[in-house]
Design goal:
The complex is a heterodimer of chains A (about 300) and B (about 400).
Chain A (H helix, E strand, L loop, with lengths): L1 H15 L10 H28 L2 H30 L4 H17 L2 H16 L7 E4 L2 E8 L3 E6 L4 E5 L2 H4 L2 E3 L9 E7 L5 H13 L11 E7 L2 E8 L7 H18 L7 H5 L10 E5 L7
Antiparallel strand pairs in A: 1-2, 1-5, 2-3, 3-4, 6-8, 6-9, 7-8
Helix pairs in contact in A: 2-3, 7-8
Chain B lengths: L9 E2 L10 H17 L13 E2 L2 H7 L8 H14 L7 E6 L7 H8 L3 E2 L5 H6 L6 H5 L1 H8 L5 E3 L14 H12 L4 E6 H10 L2 H4 L3 E3 L5 H11 L8 E5 L19 H8 L4 H11 E3 L15 E5 L12 H14 L2 E2 H7 L8 H7 L3 E4 L2 E4 L4 H10 L8
Parallel strand pairs in B: 3-6, 3-7, 4-5, 5-6, 8-10
Antiparallel strand pairs in B: 1-7, 2-9, 9-10, 11-13, 12-13
Helix pairs in contact in B: 3-4, 11-12
Classes of the chains: A alpha+beta (about 300), B alpha/beta (about 400).
Organism (chain A): Roseiconus nitratireducens
Protein name (chain A): Mechanosensitive ion channel
Main location (chain A): membrane
């Protein structure tokens, strides 16, 4: 019995030493580290995006992309610094803490922690970075910020959408520019079948080539395909700045409509198109943006 | 410099943009910072507002035109052997020049050599000719007849005047390039560097004219030689050019012949190595000293001093920056445009007062009904377009 009691003593000591003695824990030091980390992160989150607006366009995405990386590094450094101040770091204690944390995470904070882990994975895998234009679950917009738990998108209608990182486990992430400065824009035209396709295709190509927003170093493509209701033209080109994508598509659409009128072609009317189920264009001309975007 | 044989033009793509001296670059940033914080300039040797502007006539005597320096000689040197060849490997030569060339270098050279010049059509004709297929028949006979006559060199001085950045504005330049490709006659084509970048992309002009050349960049040494020649004329003789920022003599040299002041190196970098930009910046920087009766103190009473101030800074309209850059880019591409043509080549946005604002801010000048970028504003415009990610010119 005594022997059994003796064998319990070291365990009790170990348990007591899971957390350091209160007198050894410097709350001031912990507060200073946490405050310092918070300050650095706050400064980085505000200064780098501001700086990104001031510097040449070529550097903008690099500065924006550095924000989540710096934040992660600072947070990890702060945690690694604070942890041994509070806890008595031994292998046994690690197992105890990990076990307790697993239960808590498994029951209470599963999604939250999943988002945190996904956020960390996103920093390294880079399915999206600040400044990228992405489509997640039907929402298309510019990544404004990549936080710990979620990212924020600003859509073309100026809505801000918060998307938890855990979506990367389940959904496809469609990134239109993938860290580059430009992205493909597509202007669609739906034309009645009776027209000179070669002339119209050349006209659409010149429409894209003479746009003020065009990036010269990227290709200009005009694709056409036959549908039961007529011919669909897709004018694909890149603007020199992806922030101009909607202005670019509008410009292509306005001048494209003039071109097709001058070529004597006619757009498909909704009444005519409606006679064909399943292959029905939404409007006579639609716009879309993003490399893998489709007409909806 | 006069004793040195003239340089020849180089293949496009080898233009060396002069670098800004490190000290000058740092000083520029600190000056901007000080101006932002304190709202006024750093204490210069002589304050700009105490100096007097010279009249236009006086400037013409101090810095006489042309603004192209020795380029006419260099151009002739470049093509002299090629012109003599009866069966050259390339019948066509392309000279790509930076914008704001008010001397019409290629045309001037052609007239000097008494070559045949094909004038560009009226721009309005390019779009209003009706059926695009008829347009070449209307506008190209000049090329045809010129090509059929004589053995002289045929010169098209400004290719940028043969198109409009519009869906129907490319047909004529396409036809022109097709016809020129069939000529078996010496032909020199001049083109603005911004237009060349666009035409290479839009109509594949680089395939028709595969060997473009341009002049050698005007670095500190070349500027020193050229401006030294200008300073030898009667009006500026025995005058000293001093920088208002630090009072240093700009043309004074060390024992090893290097200039004591970094002004010319800074000017070479600011002008991107383009002689006419440097010439305009130099001309706009010259000031006369303050009059004694105005209470101005003579800093160097034993000499006749001409003061050289720092180049003027230009500000784009803050609330219309994007539209302003689109407009300036279009003007650079076409060299000159009327207000109506500006609206034709730009997206349909309502910016009716933008040209006026750009004139007021010093970016654009008007000649008759045509607008064009000012040479002194070109460094600011080029930097702003580059920073905004616009497709740039190719030299």
């Amino acid at each position: 019995m005594l022997a059994a009691a003796d064998s319990l003593v070291p365990d009790t000591d170990q348990a007591v030493k899971l957390i350091n003695d209160w007198k050894d824990i410097s709350l001031v030091q912990i507060a200073a580290i946490a405050g310092g980390a918070w300050l650095i992160i706050t400064v980085v989150r505000h200064v780098l995006p501001w700086l990104a607006q001031q510097v040449p366009n070529q550097l903008r995405l690099y500065l924006l992309g550095a924000v989540p990386i710096i934040r992660l590094v600072v947070m990890v450094a702060a945690i690694l610094w604070i942890f041994p101040i509070i806890f008595n770091v031994t292998f046994q204690n690690f197992l105890v803490i990990a076990g307790g944390a697993s239960v808590a995470i498994g029951f209470a904070f599963k999604d939250y922690v999943s988002s945190l882990i996904a956020g960390t994975v996103a920093v390294f895998e880079r399915p999206y970075r600040p400044g990228d234009w992405v489509k997640i679950g039907g929402n298309y917009g510019e990544v404004q910020a990549v936080g710990l738990r979620a990212l924020t998108l600003r859509t073309e209608d100026d809505d801000v959408i918060t998307v938890p990182h855990l979506r990367i486990w389940q959904d496809n992430i469609c990134n239109s520019n993938d860290g580059e400065r430009s992205l493909m824009c597509v202007a669609d035209f739906f034309i009645e079948p009776d027209h000179d396709a070669a002339e119209l295709r050349a006209a659409f190509r010149d429409v894209a080539l003479t746009s003020a927003y065009l990036e010269y170093d990227k290709p200009v493509l005009v694709m056409l395909s036959e549908k039961p209701w007529g011919t669909q033209y897709r004018v694909k080109a890149y603007p020199f700045d992806m922030r101009d994508q909607f202005a670019f598509i509008s410009d292509l659409t306005v001048r494209g409509k003039l071109a097709l009128a001058e070529c004597g072609a006619q757009e498909v009317s909704a009444t005519f198109a409606g006679e064909f189920s399943g292959e029905q264009p939404p409007n006579s001309a639609t716009q879309s943006s993003g490399k893998t975007d489709s007409i909806t | 410099m006069a004793n040195r044989p003239p340089s020849t033009f180089r293949t496009l793509g080898h233009f060396d943009y002069p670098g800004m001296p490190a000290e000058a670059g740092l000083r520029r940033w600190t000056t901007k910072l000080i101006q932002r914080v304190r709202g006024k300039e750093e204490n210069p040797f002589v304050a700009r507002d105490k100096l007097r502007l010279a009249s236009s006539d006086r400037l013409d005597r101090l810095v006489p035109p042309p603004a192209c320096g020795p380029l006419l000689r260099e151009m002739q040197e470049t093509f002299a052997d090629w012109i003599e060849e009866p069966e050259p490997s390339n019948w066509m030569q392309l000279v790509v020049l930076p914008p704001c060339d008010r001397n019409n270098l290629v045309q001037q050279w052609a007239e000097q050599q008494q070559f045949e010049v094909v004038a560009a059509p009226q721009r309005d004709r390019i779009l209003t000719a009706g059926d695009a297929s008829e347009l070449p028949a209307v506008e190209l006979p000049a090329v045809e007849s010129a090509a059929a006559q004589g053995e002289h060199v045929l010169v098209i001085p400004r290719l940028e005047q043969w198109f409009l950045r519009h869906r129907r504005g490319l047909d004529l330049v396409r036809c022109l390039l097709d016809r020129l490709a069939l000529l078996r006659r010496h032909c020199v084509v001049g083109c603005n560097s911004w237009a060349w970048g666009f035409l290479s992309r839009a109509v594949g002009a680089d395939l028709a004219l595969p060997h473009p050349v341009t002049f050698e960049s005007f670095t500190t040494d070349r500027l020193q030689g050229w401006f030294g020649e200008l300073a030898e004329n009667g009006e500026t003789e025995a005058r000293t050019f001093r920088r208002s920022l630090d009072g240093k003599d700009i043309f004074a040299t060390n024992e090893d012949g290097a200039p004591q002041s970094d002004y010319l190196a800074t000017l070479a970098a600011q002008s991107f190595g383009i002689p006419w930009i440097a010439w305009h910046l130099w001309r706009s920087s010259l000031r006369l000293g303050p009059k004694p009766e105005d209470g101005g103190e003579e800093k160097f009473p034993d000499e006749q001093t001409l003061w050289v101030t720092e180049p003027e800074e230009f500000d784009l309209p803050a609330s219309h920056r994007g539209s302003a850059l689109l407009t300036l880019h279009a003007l650079l591409l076409h060299d000159t445009l009327t207000a109506e043509q500006v609206h034709t080549v730009l997206p349909s946005i309502d910016e009716s007062n933008l040209l006026t604002a750009l004139i007021n801010n010093g970016f654009v000048e008007q000649e008759n009904d045509h607008f064009r970028c000012r040479a002194v504003a070109y460094p600011t415009i080029r930097r702003a377009l580059n920073d905004a990610g616009f497709p740039m010119d190719r030299l």
